[in-house]
Amino acid sequence: MxxxxxxxxxxxxxxxxxxxxxxxxxxxxxxxxxxxxxxxxGHDDHQARIAAIREVEKKLHRPIAVVADLQGPKLRVxxxxxxxxxxxxxxxxxxxxxxxxxTALRAPLIHPEVFAALSVGAELLLxxxxxxxxxxxxxxxxxxxxxxxxxxxxxxxxxNVPNVILPIxxxxxxxxxxxxxxxxxxxxxxxxxxVQRPEDVMxxxxxxxxxxxxxxxxxxxxxxxxxAIEHLAEIVEYSDAVMVARGDLGVxxxxxxxxxxxxxxxxxxxxxxxxxxxxTQMLESMIHSPSPTRAEASDVATAVYDGADAxxxxxxxxxxxxxxxxxxxxxxxxxxxxxxxxxRVIIEASRLEPERTTQDAISAAARQVAHTLGAAAIVTxxxxxxxxxxxxxxRPDPPILSVTADIEVARQMALVWGTHxxxxxxxxxxxxxxxxxxxxxxxxxxxxxxxxVVITAGVPFGHSGTxxxxxxxxxxxxxxxxxxxxxxxxx
Length: 491
What we know:
This protein has 491 residues and is of the alpha/beta class. It folds into 3 domains: 8-72 and 170-341, TIM Barrel, CATH 3.20.20; 81-160, PK beta-barrel domain-like (M1 Pyruvate Kinase, Domain 3, Beta Barrel), CATH 2.40.33; 358-474, Pyruvate kinase, C-terminal domain (Pyruvate Kinase, Chain: A, domain 1), CATH 3.40.1380.20. It is 36% helix and 22% strand. The strands form 4 sheets. It has an 8-stranded parallel barrel, surrounded by 8 helices. Helix 1 (20-29) runs parallel beside helix 12 (323-338). The longest helix is centred in the first third of the chain and has 18 residues, at 43-60. It is elongated and about 80 Å long.
């Protein structure tokens, strides 16, 4: 079962999509990766979802990636008299550490780290930016503000502090428990929320490594704070992948800058050869409607034209009325865009120079040879995923068939642009390398007799980071059956 597109689809699981039947339907509709949102549901819920995903994987013989998305710290005001109040524009409004019920003139905010980071003139945003305050005076346990934009405010609404790096870890006690659980349950990617600086990514990496089996798990950093953009290159360097979390980014940044930041982040990730995900509010009207708005379809198309590795659905599949339809629509939009004659022109125009390494030289040559010969596929042999990632960085014309002996690598590559993973035992010599490449290209639906495939690998075989071989093979009618095995078995 192969996809007829390059960009991948991430579907979030939730109440509308947690049974094995529902997960299988989402996969068949086009979902390549499933996201577990740890802001909702308990460990039992997520464990059941992972088990269901692995059953679907066994049944359909395709590696499926699981992303465990940590909640991160949530800054919220406390409770109000009567549950809600109305705050008037121009009025004075106080935030403080007292747990007394809030009024139209003050609110409890039990976050000393916020008060410690404030300065006069700083803006505070409440309820996703619907209410704006300007700090006039502050201390270690209070802030007196002027209401710039008033409105209704109710219990536990969120607080954002734009353009301020808060002295807090992106990992709460809950996140640390969730991270350990997710690694132990076999999640392939950990998504880190509230990233502000490179040190946040390094802290998460250290915690993942401390869990048994954590060395195999990849880290996806969510960029939702403007401060993260100031350290973009370093955060991309320390992460295995990056997510453009546009919903949160749009609260703290002017809306008109979000598309620019999206392009900048995608470009930085492509330059580094790291997968990049564009997320939030992509087909939001499909939460309650069987079809998206034209603007939403255009939004998804823009991410695809930019060369994003994956686009993500959140509430559309987690709690919406049309989860399967949302995935199918995303699949159709991506397929249509990638079939547009201008798609390749745009992708080629944004192609990046290879780095001065043997691996990149081979990957760039593979792309050029495949283009010149009209090859049916590029076959990459990889033990860590590195060879496949560098091939995907080139954004080649034909699909990338990633052959690996490691089920965990096969699953992780499900997030990567243009990549179709196959699990197979390590090859031992050049003849076996070519024969297996031709075999998989045919059996996986990429090639037929007479087609050519371009093969990259590393010698000695089975060693990470040694890509140094480029071969071209023409499929002949004597291609045999060579050692594929099902994705639920690990070598």
